[in-house]
Amino acid sequence: MQCFISILRGINVGGQRIIKMEELKSLYSDLGFLGCQSYIQSGNVVFCSSEENAKNLESLISMEIANRFNLKVPVIVLKTEELNEIISNNPFLGDPSSGDTHLHITFLSDIPEMELAGKISQSSFLPDRFHIRGKTMYLCCPNGYGNTKFNNTFIENKLKVTATTRNWRTTLELLRMAEKTATLTR
Fold this sequence. Notes:
The protein has helices at residues 21-30, 54-69, 80-88, 114-121, 152-159, 168-184, and strands at 2-8, 34-39, 44-49, 75-79, 103-108, 129-133, 136-140, 163-167.
């Protein structure tokens, strides 16, 4: 049994595309997943499954959300080990100018094409900084994520992949939950 973190794009934001977390957890349980837990109201669910392919899980969850709630919601699924690696590889950790409250992780549905990643790397919106590694975009936004140009829509338009962003504290909590769930379902 493998533990996963699923991150849904664009639900419960601005009063649109509402899915109550209890209903979402119920959907995951109905799909046969174990240890289902949600974190805050923006579509973060930790669960365990015997299915090991994250892309298969993304499709399954997305289809079931469409069937049950009549919503098209992109879903990104990560193994616990992947999230741990993402956290460990944050290039802004230890940078005194970044501070934990300024750090965000943008999870990408796929590795962006090198040419597109190169183009976005030419974008400069200081003091905001970013670094792309694989399917992750690390953000440091000293004036807050609400004030950055590097929002999900900008990233999706430039990189041609689905993007959803979580703050550093949420990312760390999702890893903690996943590790705890993994030990409880063994």
